[in-house]
Amino acid sequence: MMKRQVGAVVWAAGLSLLMSAGAAMAAGSTSALPPPDPTAKNLTPYMIQLRAFDACLITQSRLMSTTREAVHTPCSCYAKGTVNAMTKDEIQAFRDTGYFNDTAREKGYDFIDRCKLKRP
User: Fold this and answer.
1) In this structure, is the dihedral angle defined by the CA atoms of residues 67, 63, 79 and 8, taken in order, positive or negative?
2) Contact status, residue 78 vs residue 63, Cβ threshold 8 Å
3) What is the reported pTM?
4) Inter-CA distances, 97 with 40, 43, 79, 90, 114, Å
5) Could you list the pLDDT tens digit for every one of the 120 residues in the chain?
6) C-alpha distances in angstroms, 24 versus 8, 19, 33, 55?
7) What is the structure's pLDDT at 31?
8) For residues 57 and 71, is the Cβ–Cβ distance under 8 A?
């Protein structure tokens, strides 16, 4: 039962991350960003990786008009690579806001390209 609740929280948080990332990208770095996500406060790097992975599955399956299963491996590459490349400050910034800051986002774009995904 606990796994199901954690899974639901991670999925909801991933969706929140996806929407936050989309809004942040559309708005650019000079506009107001969405409010901080309080559920991100205590996330471990692994949990941040899971959020990025879930958001990637949703976004990339839509962008590529395919199934989530078809983008599983590239999204795993993206999520692991991005979070492993993040500094302690970038991890803390994610915990504070619930989305990648500008420097972490650049690393994310690099891994989108490396893992052969489409940029949103």
Assistant:
1) negative
2) no
3) 0.73
4) 7, 11, 18, 11, 26
5) 545 544 444 444 454 444 444 444 444 455 577 899 999 999 999 999 999 999 999 999 999 999 999 999 999 999 999 999 999 999 999 999 999 999 999 999 999 999 999 999
6) 24, 8, 6, 14
7) 59
8) yes
Q: Which residues contact 43 (CB under 8 A, 6 or more apart)?
A: 51, 94, 95
Among candidate residues 18, 8, 21, 13, the one with its CA nearest the CA of residue 38: 13
5 in Cβ contact with 39 (< 8 Å): no
**φ, ψ (nearest 5 deg) of residue 77:** -55, -50
The two three-digit tokens of residue 40, written as one number: 């991100």
Q: At what angle do helices 72-85 and 45-63 cross, to 10 degrees?
A: 140
How much is the pLDDT for 42? 96
Q: What are the counts of helices (DSSP H) followed by strands (DSSP E) for the chain?
A: 5, 0
What's the alpha-carbon Rg for the chain, to the nearest Å? 13
